[in-house]
């Protein structure tokens, strides 16, 4: 018989403030990897779950997608949040399992394949130049997150969807409220009902987009989603809006977090900044290291459909597991000196995009955006330093820096 280990350190995963304190978070995860890599977690206000912290175990659970399914609990939220999401019937890609997941994923897949990425690269490079130019025009000081990093990927993903530029700021607000609903600065309100209004407003907006694209189709991803058919039938309104929701939010916030955290890492590791500036050919490896370092998606959940076992620990049918991606990406068994930021790290088998059938649909776009931005910025960057204290979002799902005050000098 295996013993159910409940290490107190694992309670950190249900504490949004822990993700705003990286030293505390990583200390807890390092302890868990060494002492309780599969730990039972019971926290008031949350349905219980197992915390999985080792890279190999995360990969094994992701690989076994028939035993460990996304439904009915794809992300960690409060018990009240679990009930609310079930009542609303939200059905994004992260909520679905095969065979339905495979069919729905195919709707957007062509928009993120290499051919499509090559066609989009010109626009991404133009936007990267635009936002670096804006940094130059600001005169050498800015809050890099709020003035640059949140806007660049927002413009990319909204352009891909075909959303008018006049609505970009509204979508940014909705996204920050959704992913920042545990952060006092970003959340819509204090109650679950108030926080749910951001999701309701987003649904209302995308219902209008659906109606417009069905009445008058256009050559953009929004039109492809609105007019998609599964097994000969159109998507329901809730499924259509759910698709927009995952593309618009995950396609923006994760990339902005990586760009912000990547710049902070370069500032705090000037030898790596100089190394990358002197050897631009390292950029693809540097991009992967930034993604590993930041790991903007903090967790996904899986639920056992039958009795299973992870690292010798019995997981009963119906029990949920939390896959801690930041912990997997600091696993000492996989990464040499995992707490060292290394722009030339190779190999770099990070799990920041997930693994298996649920591997991130937009991974190629995210890599391209990060690459384009730093390829534009670094040759023009003469100096850069922190101009204040960086601040992280309080979250348990997606996030990174919310403020990064910097002082810099750029060439025109």
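^ structure tokens above, recovered residues below v
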């Amino acid at each position: 018989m295996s013993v159910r280990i409940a290490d107190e350190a694992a309670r950190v995963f249900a504490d949004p403030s822990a993700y705003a304190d990286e030293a505390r978070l990583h200390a807890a995860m390092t302890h868990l990897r060494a002492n309780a890599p599969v730990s039972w977690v019971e926290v008031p206000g949350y349905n219980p779950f197992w915390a999985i912290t080792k890279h190999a175990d995360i990969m094994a659970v992701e690989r076994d997608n028939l035993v460990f399914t996304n439904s009915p609990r794809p992300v960690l939220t409060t018990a009240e949040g679990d009930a609310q999401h079930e009542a609303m019937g939200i059905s994004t890609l992260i909520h679905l399992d095969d065979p339905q997941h495979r069919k729905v994923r195919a709707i957007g897949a062509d928009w993120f394949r290499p051919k499509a990425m090559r066609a989009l690269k010109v626009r991404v490079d133009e936007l990267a130049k635009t936002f670096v130019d804006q940094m130059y025009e600001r005169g050498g000081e800015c809050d890099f997150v709020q003035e640059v990093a949140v806007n660049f990927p927002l413009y990319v993903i909204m352009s891909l969807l075909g959303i008018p530029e006049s609505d970009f700021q509204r979508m940014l607000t909705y996204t920050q409220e959704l992913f920042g609903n545990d952060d006092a600065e970003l959340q819509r309100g204090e109650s679950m009902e108030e926080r749910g209004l951001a999701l309701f407003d987003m649904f209302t907006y995308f219902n209008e987009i659906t109606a417009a694209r069905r009445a008058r189709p256009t050559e953009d991803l929004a039109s492809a989603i609105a007019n998609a058919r599964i097994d000969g039938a159109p998507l329901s309104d809730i499924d259509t809006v759910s698709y927009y929701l995952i593309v618009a939010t995950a396609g923006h916030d994760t990339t902005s977090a990586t760009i912000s955290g990547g710049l902070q890492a370069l500032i705090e590791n000037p030898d790596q900044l100089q190394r990358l500036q002197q050897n631009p050919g390292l950029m693809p490896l540097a991009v992967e290291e930034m993604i590993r370092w930041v790991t903007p998606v903090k967790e996904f959940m899986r639920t056992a459909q039958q009795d299973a076992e992870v690292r010798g620990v019995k997981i009963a049918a119906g029990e949920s597991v939390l896959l801690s991606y930041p912990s997997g990406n600091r696993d000492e068994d996989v990464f040499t000196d995992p707490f060292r930021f290394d722009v030339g790290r190779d190999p770099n088998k990070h799990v920041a995009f997930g693994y298996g059938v649920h591997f991130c649909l937009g991974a190629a776009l995210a890599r391209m955006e990060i690459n384009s931005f730093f390829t534009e910025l670094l040759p023009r960057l003469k100096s850069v330093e922190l101009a204040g204290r960086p601040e992280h979002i309080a979250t348990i799902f997606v996030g990174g820096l919310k403020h990064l005050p910097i002082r810099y000098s750029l060439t025109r």
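The first strand starts at residue 38 and ends at 41.
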